[in-house]
Each structure stands twice: as C-alpha cells, then as structure tokens.
Write a structure and sequence with these properties.
The structure holds two protein chains of two kinds.
Chain A: E1 2-13, E2 16-27, E3 31-35, H1 42-49, E4 57-62, E5 65-66, E6 74-77, H2 91-96, H3 111-123, H4 139-150, E7 157-160, H5 169-186, E8 189-193, E9 206-211, E10 214-218, H6 220-223, H7 226-233, E11 238-242, E12 245-250, E13 253-254, H8 267-276
Parallel strand pairs in A: 3-8, 3-9, 6-7, 7-8
Antiparallel strand pairs in A: 1-2, 1-4, 4-5, 9-10, 11-12, 12-13
Chain B: H1 5-30, H2 34-53, H3 58-76, H4 78-81, H5 84-104, H6 109-117, H7 125-154, H8 156-161, H9 166-188, H10 193-197, H11 199-207, H12 211-236, H13 240-255, H14 257-267
Helix pairs in contact in B: 1-7, 1-9, 1-11, 1-12, 2-3, 2-5, 2-9, 3-9, 6-9, 7-9, 11-12, 11-13, 12-13
The chains are: A alpha/beta, B mainly alpha.
Bound molecules: adenosine-5'-triphosphate and magnesium ion.
Chain lengths: 278, 269
Amino acid sequence: MTAIGFDDVTLTLGGRDILRGVDLAIPQNAFIGVLGPNGAGKTTMMRAILGLIRPSSGHIRVLGEPATRGHAAVGYMPQTRGLVSTAGLSAWDFVASAALGHRWGLPILSATARRDVERVLDLVGASSLARRKLGALSGGERQRLLLAQSLLGTPRLLLLDEPLISLDPRYQQAMVELVRGLQRKLGLTVLFSAHELNPLLAALDQVLYLGLGHAALGTVDEVITGPVLSRLYGSDIEVVHLRGRIFVMSGDHPVERHDPNQCRSHAESHAESHTRHV
Amino acid sequence: MFDYDFMQNAFMAAAIVAVVSGVVGYFLVLRGQTFAGHALSHIGFTGATGAVLIGMSPLWGLVGMTVLGGVGMGLLGEQLQKRDVAIGVVLSVALGFGLLFLHFFTAFATQATALLFGNVLGVDAPTLWTLLGLGAACLAGLAVIARPLLFASLQPELAEARGVSLRLISVAFLALAALAVAECAEIVGVLLVFTLMVGPAAAAQRLTSRVGQGVALSVLLAWAEAWGGVALAYVTDWPTSFWITALSGSVYLLSGLPALLRDRWNHSP
Ligand SMILES: Nc1ncnc2c1ncn2[C@@H]1O[C@H](COP(=O)(O)OP(=O)(O)OP(=O)(O)O)[C@@H](O)[C@H]1O
Ligand SMILES: [Mg+2]
C-alpha cells in the first residue's frame, strides 16, 4: 500500500496553481526528502495532505483513506515562526497542549496522556528540557519539542516542514539522524522538507522535488539530474557532484541556498562554506 | 466594615469578577489579545450609554455590545484580531459614539463616571446576582473550550491539522472574553478593565511557567487586588478603582523581581 497517493492533483491558492496535475505514489516506511525553491509549494502540499487545503481537482489518499483533517495517524510539524507570547511557558506544557488537544473540556491530562508526553519527549531526547521555559531554549531544542509533538499518539506518517530551519550544520546533522532513527524504529513514513539536499543525503530513501507546479519523485540518482531539475526550475540546471556532496547549479550559482538572506553575489563564498561543512 | 450591606455586596462582587477576569485574562495574555480586550471594554461603553439613552440598564447594554464586538472581532479573523490599528480605529469610533450619546443625555454625568471608572460600592443585590450568573456562564463556556483553546493558542497550525476550528475557537473565546470584560467594567469601569483582566494574568505568567499554576495564581492575585482595593477605599475614602489599579500595577512590577534577582545572582561571580 502507498502511504500517500496523488491522483491528478491540482492545488490552487489565491487563483494561482501551486501544483498542476500531479500524480504521485509515496511508498510506506520511507524517508522522503521534500525539496524545491522558496514558494515551490512544499508547505502547501503538506497542508493538502493534512486536509487543510482541498485540491481544486484530483484526489489525495492518505494511508488508504481520502485526506481529511484530524487523521489520527498523521503527525505534523509546522514550519515554525517565533513562539513569542508563549516564551514563559514550560516545555512540558507546550508539548502537552497537543496531547488530544482537539478534544473539548478542561486541559487536564489523563495518566495515559501524560505517559505519552513523557514517551515522545524521551524519543527526541528532550526529557531533560521538560521543566525549562520555552524562551530559555535554543532554536534546536525548540525544534525537538515540535518534533515531539508530531509523535504524540500513534502516527504512521510524519509531515515535517523544514525541521532544519535556522539550525547550524552540526545540529542539522543531529536532527536528520534523529528523525531517520525514529523513522526506522517506529516504522514511519516521513516527509521531510528542506532547502538543501546535502544534509539529507545519508538518510534519504527518495526525493520529492517540487518546482513550477510539477513534482518529481524517485531516488537521488533518478531525480537530481540536469534534465529533471531543468524542467522543475524552467532553466538550464547542471548537477555537480563534489566530494560526496551534490550541488545544483544554475549557470555559475548554486540554486539551493543555505541562508535565504544571503544574496546571489555571495554565491561563491557560499559554495565554499558548503564544502567546509563536511 | 462588613456591617454595611453595600460593603458586603462590594466584596462579593469584587470576588466574582476577580475570579472571572483572572481566568479569562490568563488566556487573553497567552494569546496576545490584551489590546482586543481593552477595545471590547470601550465598545461596551457605547453599548452602556446607548442603553441608558433608551431607558435600559447599562449593564445589559454593556454585555450586549461587548459580546457583539467580541464575535465581530473573532469573525474578522485571526490576523485582524491582532492588528492593533484596526482595533484602535474601532475603539475610538465606539468611544466617540459613547460621547455622542452622553451629549444627548446630560443628566447622565455621574452614571458616565461610574461606567468609565467603576462603582463597586454601588452594586445592589440584583446586580450581584446578575454578575454571578454571567460569571458562571462565562466560566462554564471556558471550561468547555479550554483544551482546544490552549492548543490553538500555542500551536495554531498543528491544532488546525488535528481538526480544531481556529475560527470557532477564536469567536467563542472573544465572546467569553467580552462577558468577562463587561463584568469587570462593572467593578473598575471600562477605562480600567486592563487592571483586573491583564495585570494579574501577566504577573502570574512571569511568576510561573506552568499553565495550571498560572491560572490559579492569576485568580488569586486578581482576587487579592480587588479585595485589597475595596478595603483600602473603605479606610481611606479614596476611589476603589484607584486602589485596585495601584495594587495591580505594583504586583506586576514586583512580579519581575524574581527573574531580575536570579539574573543578578547568576551574573555576579
Ligand atoms: N494563502 C495563500 N494565498 C495565496 N497564495 C499563497 C497562500 N499561501 C501560500 N501562497 C503561495 O503559494 C506558493 C507556495 O507556497 P508554499 O508556502 O507552499 O511554498 P514552500 O515551498 O513551502 O516555500 P518555503 O520554502 O519558502 O517554505 C507561494 O508562491 C506562496 O506565495
Ligand atoms: Mg514552506
């Protein structure tokens, strides 16, 4: 059985097609890296899988059922913004708010739910953070709490939207390894979106690359090629393999950018920093 | 001072309102919607003056307008609620209408002062029962939505994916907040609603990082400040609302001390 099936799916936002006529069969029990430039539709696609956006045409099936909101077997880690007003809350309360948080009534957890919170904190190695305030945690530690929330209950599919955002290369590697380990241990299907391919290379089973309304799914060797990516970027793309790393080049510039604020003219020094991070 | 009926009523009214504002205020602060709460009270002022003008009780005008305003703000959507400019415009227009109603009804000056700055010493037995009923309704409603409300406040995207309707929660919460604001205005007046709704809750959030303890502390602080205000007013003959604001402000300032001292302690060798 496939974990996620797209049947001729078109996703439209504000009158613009983000994905157009996409067919996909994402296998179960796999670590899928979701890549594509800013605005390619990675977040939109995850929201559609969650049932938050209805396809303007076509059908999405998730774990054998039509995509609907609140599917108990789908865990989600949203692309994060700052958690400003909640900075004074404890990490435990933050994670616990998501434990059956959709039910009506008082936010008092049963013993079972409390054990579940302990379990997911332990899974992501964040048990020691439980008493700390959110505002006193590093970005990487907060990302782990978000990952913990996505593991509450019994998910079989995890949608992780940019878990590497604002992490330094070492923390990125730790995050990827953590998720890969959980994916294997719990037998999960993981969609892991990112802006860079290289941090994911060792963990990936398949790549799902988005661009210009199209999607390409397959192994790295099948998808990360000049012809496939040229179609997704709408320009001539060259793929350069260098010391076990892969650079997607448009002309002389790498198109994946580590830091969105970095401007194109710095592309050279940027390529250098890529190589340093081995 | 407990020999007088009006003092007994004042203490009971203050207690009811403190509990309601302490609980609702906690979520208002958590959601970053304190300014919306402030605006609701101003909208309520227009409702109250309008009600008096057509011969109705100001409390019901207050309740009606704040709840309407709360539902309206909720329906306008997540983003708009936090847009301070839009809220600011609405509240000044509302206050302007309140002023106009005041102009049409000149004998209204003392009632206007009571509305603006509260008059807890003037609470009679029927009003007390109304406050109790409204407060109970508000807390009962909050007890129903508290869990998804907390979830939606801390992790809106995830809550939405789990099936929580952010719109429904937002509208329901602002309607309940409007009830609390109307109650609160009865004690400290529409201009000073902040002092019981926001002061204790914000202080509580500085003092504890746990939700349960935070709500409890927020209630305790609001209650202590309200009773302290009534008692001090009795002793000094100064306005109750002044004392409540003074206590609320002091408590908020003091609530920053533990963190400050901790930092000092950590920084000194
Ligand atoms: N509510 C909306 N209405 C209209 N257009 C939208 C809306 N939300 C997103 N879009 C557009 O849809 C496109 C895809 O956005 P999406 O957030 O899915 O991209 P993404 O691949 O996740 O990008 P990023 O890497 O920056 O996170 C963007 O061009 C964006 O401007
Ligand atoms: Mg995105």
